[in-house]
């Protein structure tokens, strides 16, 4: 194992880390609303391309378009099969927070390490995620894409988060379920843990807090 700068600030993603995997949630959403998943994915890609981006949620979480307008465009692409003005209620309904990961975050914070949330978040979903977890009890800071005008994996959001934390980039660790976001963190001088489950991520975080880089394919 290689020595490195001790972790002074842990940044956790929200969707797919503090919640069930995005793929699972997307599957439940499509099933409950009778929407073909492949067709929805293709429609999201078409709408994203209109805004000159490739990530299907980037138009929403920067934001480049209001959710209502975005949904109208998706509905047209789907032949009128998406009669919603917001997906927040149905997307968050019944979603439980990841209790095991919350325990890890609390233990890290009690140890004296800063803990923040770094998420690509849709403005209309802001109040909904805050009902799933209590930010004040978990985080020292929350950095959301729609509030700061940049998103993961763009370098600006990592630089901003480190500055707000008051630590050097190499003292920041990101835990994220998306490898592209982990790679973006590494490019910004951070370390990153690719989240698979709370137990393995927690074990890696404990090593990083001691300045040890675990020999694992899940650590970038």
What is the CATH C-level name of the largest domain? Alpha Beta
Question: Remind me, CATH topology of the largest domain?
Answer: Rossmann fold
**Count of structural domains:** 2
Question: Count of helical segments?
Answer: 12
Q: Order of strands across the widest beta sheet?
A: 4-3-2-5-6
Assign a percent range to the helix content: 40-55%
> How many whole angstroms does the radius of gyration measure?
18 Å
Can you identify the CATH superfamily of the largest domain?
HAD superfamily/HAD-like
H/E order of the elements? EEHHHHHHEHHEHHEHEHE
Please name the CATH architecture of the largest domain. 3-Layer(aba) Sandwich
> What is the average per-residue confidence, as pLDDT, rounded to a whole number?
90
Helix/strand-derived class?
A: alpha/beta
The biggest beta sheet reads:
5 strands, parallel
Principal-axis shape: globular
> Span from first to last CA?
14 Å
Spans of 5+ residues with little confidence (pLDDT < 50)?
Answer: 215-220
* Count of beta strands: 7
Q: What percent strand?
A: 5-15%
